[in-house]
UniProtKB/TrEMBL annotation:
<dbReference type="GO" id="GO:0005739">
    <property type="term" value="C:mitochondrion"/>
</dbReference>
<protein>
    <submittedName>
        <fullName>Uncharacterized protein</fullName>
    </submittedName>
</protein>
<dbReference type="GO" id="GO:0033615">
    <property type="term" value="P:mitochondrial proton-transporting ATP synthase complex assembly"/>
</dbReference>
<dbReference type="Pfam" id="PF07542">
    <property type="entry name" value="ATP12"/>
</dbReference>
<dbReference type="InterPro" id="IPR042272">
    <property type="entry name" value="ATP12_ATP_synth-F1-assembly_N"/>
</dbReference>
<dbReference type="InterPro" id="IPR011419">
    <property type="entry name" value="ATP12_ATP_synth-F1-assembly"/>
</dbReference>
Length: 149
């Protein structure tokens, strides 16, 4: 077995320093951005004309969120939003995100026919049902206590 001295393991040749050359792929300024061709522009305009934007056919113009008696209420123009049992739909002050979500639900509605279908207004349906149940329980407990006394 042959043993090597530690000096033999060290390279005697000097490494050449690496030189970084800038590599240019293209000379001159960058090219101009591509311009749409007229056939594609006219095709896009025809497509937009074939599918017009949906019209809004609803009886209210704007949806507002107001603070009334310490509770949020949603107003369609000047009329407050009501439940199916004619109670005013009002949200507690500590739930502003729910009130904003309800407002957004009515802002995004395009036709008043959508308001008649509960699957188009799921939050409003849930909140209205909860308010109706709360009012029903309050009236039952009020009547029950008057009967006992």
């Amino acid at each position: 077995m042959m043993t090597r001295s530690p000096a033999a393991l060290v390279h005697a040749t000097r490494r050449a320093a690496s030189v970084c050359w800038r590599c240019r792929t293209a000379a001159g300024p960058p090219p101009e951005p591509p311009q749409p061709q007229s056939e594609y522009v006219s095709r896009e305009r025809l497509h937009q004309a074939a599918f017009p934007k949906p019209r809004t056919e609803r009886f209210w113009q704007d949806v507002r969120l107001k603070l009334v008696d310490g509770r949020y209420q949603i107003f369609l123009d000047a009329r407050p939003l009501r439940t199916s049992s004619k109670h005013t739909l009002s949200i507690p002050v500590n739930k502003p995100l729910l009130a904003y979500a309800l407002q957004l639900e009515w802002v995004l509605m395009r036709t008043s026919k959508e308001a008649l279908k509960p699957h188009f207004i799921p939050l409003t349906s849930l909140v209205a049902r909860a308010i109706d149940l709360e009012q029903e329980q309050a009236s039952e407990t009020g009547e029950g206590s008057s009967r006992r006394g």
